[in-house]
Amino acid sequence: MPVDESVSDCLFRNARTPSRWKDEPVANEMLQTLYDLVKMGPTSGNCCPARFVFLTTQDVKERLRPALSAGNVDKAMTAPVVAIIAYDPLFFDYFSQLNPEPDLRSWFASDVGLAEETAFRNGTLQGGYLILAARALGLDALPLSGFDSAMVEDTFLAADGWRANFLLCLGHGVHDETPRAGRLSFDEACRLL
After folding, report:
1. Residue 163 class from Cβ within 10 Å (0-12 exposed, 13-18 middle, 19+ buried)?
2. Which of 4, 127, 169, 185 is a plausible cystine mate for 85, CB 3.0–4.6 Å?
3. What distance lies between CA 76 and its chain's CA centroid?
């Protein structure tokens, strides 16, 4: 059954990427609820490679500052939470609990290129789910790609061997009346074959 139009409005039509943040915290319980929604989204073979590191205090976010491009420093430093959207290159080690297909682990363990491509693609997909789940829970989301991924990995992800994909600022945004940026039309972005 299609969802009510108000849900589509909340997730897509009326949702805006904020330029500034209200000084309102995001509770750790909200981040748990957020993940509990995200984990239900589909991935190929239920591989679930995304990993999320939530930076929730100013002290921890300051460790991120040197990795940010100049244009993203204020956006990230003032956000209540910055999530590092990462992926686990060894995601296939969890197949025993995620997918009962026999020998599925060996497909990826024996092909680094296939594993990397699968992890990146599906981890990105799960990052998109995080944006939609945040909107569904009343949070605003601001994705960022201007950062030094090697520095982020060294600072936050090295112990687990995870790889950085993108950053996502979360909180309650301040929305001005700036018109929404343009979008491509169906005919510009799509082909019916």
Report:
1. buried
2. 127
3. 14
Q: Which tokens in the block code for residue 15?
A: 């949702």
Work out how many domains the chain is built from and give that number.
1
* CATH number reported for the structural domain that contains residue 95 in this entry: 3.40.109.10
State the pLDDT at residue 62.
98
Alpha carbons 117 and 125: distance in angstroms, whole number: 12
* Dist CA 83 CA 168 (whole Å): 5
Which tokens is 32 given? 């748990």
130 alpha carbon, distance to own chain's centre? 5
Range of the domain at 42: 5-189
Q: Which residues contact 180 (CB under 8 A, 6 or more apart)?
A: 16
Structure tokens at 158: 């090295």
Q: How far apart are CA 91 and CA 94, in angstroms?
A: 6
Q: What is the tens place of the pLDDT at every residue in 12-66? A: 998 889 989 999 999 999 999 999 999 999 999 999 999 999 999 999 999 999 9
Q: What is the pTM of this model?
A: 0.95
